[in-house]
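pls design
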């Protein structure tokens, strides 16, 4: 079901500001398609973006939730929309570099069917384990001693948690058993109970468990420690062949291919500015998000890099598109 939530509209603006004197664009409502159900961190990102765009460009921006099929339903809708700046996509790593290898006939080309404006934020992940495994070296040693005996939990085949652990095993030369669950909460529950040995989790649900000692926080992928988990080392610090590994999750802004360059330029500038305010940066840090490089070039390069990486990782794991 499609749901709509009204974002903050900009107040009346003085004629002295020419770029903001006319509502964006032409006084019409702009839909930011969210390929997830309402609620959670994705809605926080959506509100930062819709409010920021409205304040900087004028007019009304709303969130339009179109969940389903590993985010491809919402992406397909935007790819087929008129390229007039009135329909945008809050894109994700799943949309562009995971779904092509997990969903059969996604209905769009992840590169050619979109204008890729900018990354907005990168999801913080943390490698956690049952406390009986207190460090990355201990996990690697145990996995090498008993190939295939240790298990890792995820929230599904082809998920970000899955590709992160596939990359971990590839880099460390280990083999572990994949145990997918229907969502992150049961995966964390089973790891806390010790019925699975480890997993990559997003920061928010794992943080309290690490601080309470119910999970061991082993490492965060990326070059810098997370403000939300300053006590957990980076993969660069722990070594074990993991240097250079980074988060597999990010969010971005897309428009349909063929959207006029003038519209794209204004959207990109306003979107980047919306995620650089002190309030936005503090909120993102609290949720365990990283800043990302602005503009189309870094986003396009990230998509190209991860399409190749995820194709290889999922092929090695024998994952075939479904649906």
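designed seq:
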């Amino acid at each position: 079901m499609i749901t709509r939530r009204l974002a903050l509209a900009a107040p009346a603006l003085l004629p002295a500001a020419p770029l903001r004197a006319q509502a964006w664009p032409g006084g019409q409502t702009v839909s930011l398609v969210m390929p997830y159900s309402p609620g959670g961190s994705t809605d926080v990102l959506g509100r930062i973006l819709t409010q920021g765009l409205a304040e900087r460009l004028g007019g009304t921006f709303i969130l339009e939730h179109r969940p389903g099929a590993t985010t491809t339903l919402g992406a397909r809708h935007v790819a087929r929309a008129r390229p007039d700046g009135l329909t945008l996509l809050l894109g994700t790593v799943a949309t562009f570099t995971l779904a092509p290898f997990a969903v059969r006939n996604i209905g769009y080309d992840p590169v050619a069917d979109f204008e890729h404006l900018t990354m907005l934020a990168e999801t913080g992940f943390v490698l956690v384990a049952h406390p009986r495994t207190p460090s990355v070296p201990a996990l690697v040693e145990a996995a090498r001693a008993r190939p295939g005996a240790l298990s890792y939990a995820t929230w599904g085949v082809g998920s970000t948690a899955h590709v992160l652990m596939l990359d971990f095993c590839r880099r460390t030369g280990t083999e572990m058993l994949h145990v997918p669950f229907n969502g992150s909460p049961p995966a964390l529950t089973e790891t806390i109970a010790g019925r699975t040995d480890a997993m990559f989790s997003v920061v928010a649900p794992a943080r309290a468990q690490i601080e309470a000692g119910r999970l061991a926080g082993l490492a965060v992928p990326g070059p810098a420690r997370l403000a939300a988990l300053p006590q957990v080392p980076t993969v660069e610090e722990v070594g074990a062949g993991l240097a250079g590994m980074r988060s597999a999750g990010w969010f971005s802004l897309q428009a349909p291919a063929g959207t006029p360059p003038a519209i794209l330029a204004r959207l990109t500038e306003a979107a980047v500015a919306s995620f650089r305010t002190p309030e936005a940066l503090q909120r993102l840090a609290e949720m365990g998000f990283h800043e990302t490089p602005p503009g189309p070039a870094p986003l396009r390069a990230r998509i190209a890099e991860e399409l190749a990486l995820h194709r290889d990782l999922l092929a090695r794991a024998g994952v075939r598109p479904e649906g």
